[in-house]
Structures are given as C-alpha cells and as structure tokens.
Amino acid sequence: MDKKDIYEHLAKIYLDSSATKKKRLKSSHRVRKLLIISVSLVAAVGLIPVLRGYFSHPKNAESEIALFLLSDAAKINFNFDPAKKETYSINLNKLDLAKFRALSFSLKKTDYTDTISVRVEFTNAFKERSEIYVKDIPLRWQDNKILLADFKGITDWTEMSGLSFIVEEWNAKAKHGVVYIDNIKLLR
Q: CB within 8 A of 87, min separation 6: which ones?
C-alpha cells in the first residue's frame, strides 16, 4: 500500500465514522424533541380540568358546598274545601345542620290569577319550631335563599327533625291549585 492508499483508507474510515456520529446525534435530538413534546402534552392534559374550572366560574362568584335534600320537583296540590292547609315535609332524621348557613330552593305556581305564599318551617328534636313566609310565588321557577340565622325560633341546629313547605288557606287567593318545589338544598 502506498501513501495515497493509506490516506484514502483513513479518510474513508473517518468519513464513515463521522456520518454514523451525525446519524446518532440526529436520532438523539429526535428522541429529546419527542420526550419534550410528550412531557408538554401530559402537563397540558393535566391542566385542562384546572383551567376549565378557572374559566367557567366568574371571578367574584362564591363557591358553595351543598347538601341536596330534594333534587326532583315535588308538588303541593292544595284543595281547601275540607282542609285548611297542605304540607310537603322532609324528615331530616336528626341531621346536624350547625355547619350550614342557608336553605336554598325553587318555587313556582300553576295558576296565574292566584296569589300564594308558602310557609317554610324547620323543627328540631327539642320541638323548637321556626317559620318564614315566602310571598308571591311566581308562574316561573324562582330561586329562593333563606339564611338559617333568620329562623329565630331554632336555638340548636345539631338535631333537626323536619323541614316543611306549607300552603295555608289564608295565604292563597284561590281554594285549589298547585305549587311546585324543586332543588331543596342546604348551603355551607
């Protein structure tokens, strides 16, 4: 082998090794890019629920924890011919409401000519009763929120026995009709 052959042989070895090195570098860059992209995607997917919650609520809205007592609409079908009042009651079974701050519910009536008020009444295990009247029930669903502190007759909220919605003869213009109650819940 002469000098020229040796140089060509060494050049071939060098060029072949540098081309292989470039291929390895390209593949390691490709792997690194794929790793960064996959980590970014996993992080983005993990943030979606957080961002969805952040953007779906108004900035100044207060979030509330609720205990649903009734999620389907209930009906008070009153006919004051023999009766003097009609009641829809929920047995609270000694439920502790001391940590709750408000009662929320929706009401509507069916007769546009009737003027109806509904009595909302809490009773505890010690037979303490307190009531608040919701006046002028509308034809469309109306959301109502009453602070539990407004029920002045209740001193102990730790063992509540009942919640009642009552339509009384003297609080309804017509002698018969229907009142619907929905989404009864306690708010913290």
A: 76, 164, 165, 166, 167
